[in-house]
Amino acid sequence: MAAVPEESKVVYNFLGKSGLKVANICLGTMTFGDNKLGMWGQTSEELAHQILDRYVEWGGNFIDTADSYSGGKSESILGSWIKKQERERFVIATKVRAPVSESNPNSVGLSRRHIVESIQTSLERLQTDYVDLYQMHLWDDATPVEETVRTLDDLVRCGKVRYIGASNMLGWQMQRLVDLTQMMGTSPFISLQQQYSLVSRDSELEAFQVCKANGMGVLPWSPLKAGLLTGKYKRDSRPKEGRIGWAAEKGLAAQAWPAWDSLLEDDQIWNTLDTLEDIAKKHGKSIAQVSLRWVLQKDIVPSVLIGTTKTSQLDDNMGAANGWKLSPEDMAALDAVSAPKLPYPYEFNTRLNKSRSNPFVPTYAVQNSSG
Fold this sequence. Notes:
The protein is of the alpha/beta class. Helices cover about 40% and strands about 15% of the residues. The chain has an 8-stranded parallel beta sheet with strand order 9-8-7-6-5-4-3-10. The chain has a two-stranded antiparallel sheet with strand order 1-2. It is globular. One of its GO terms (molecular function) is oxidoreductase activity. This is 4-deoxy-L-erythro-5-hexoseulose uronic acid reductase. Keywords: Oxidoreductase.
């Protein structure tokens, strides 16, 4: 493989209102190891290590996993690689909340018991004494959130965790976390890992407003929507490969792999892809790179997560990291073509506040911000 030019390597940004700097592209490891779904595109340990090595050549230092990915195999594969590295060079993030055992009713959620047990297991798999960012993978209705917040703070205080973050949250849930940490005097949440892309912008309405108002960085996952925003899928051809093709064949649908039939009916998605293709041709870039660049240029995004199954795919995605930018006109065109339809009260509130611009009052609107 060719050497990575210095001017193309990653940029390092502060992760939210913290002193921690991370690469502006984070390597997600959900594809590492096989899983019980028989999901398409999973990678062996050998290939995963090749991908990690190449990511480092791009200057990458930020790697994300979870205790539930591939039944814990993702953490183990990452751990066997970390063991051979200089640990302090890397920012390692993992998550807790999803069920990790079918036979143990306490192996799920955000109770003190499960969090303490989960972090210990994660540390053992990762072969490290601490994780840099420990994230709530999802809200847990069954556990008092005060119990969760206090436990996470205890992990920071005892040195097993450096910072805490959240993932897949509603707006009111993020605000509740902010209020509680301030009231209880515990470690603040510095980030929100959330699905965010040109075809998934609903979090701009609430959750991202909380992040912007409180200095939390947004870490977008699925910025290419399972490959949809790479341009490889065509409206007149049912997919037979990739995550979306796998899902279509299995008759499955989820946030991470949308149903093909629902995509076919959405004119806005195909209009967005047309605009992406035009901008990509203008810049001499791939559609995937333009899709990633749009997310990277949002001012609340310090780093974006990518997943990959081959080093060539990694190289293409990393080509969005540095050395070029979308123009304000490009950003505006993509903002407009992908703009979500605002339901009440968002549309009502936004429309009637257009004439109320006050330079002394901070504005948190994300959908019109190009960073």
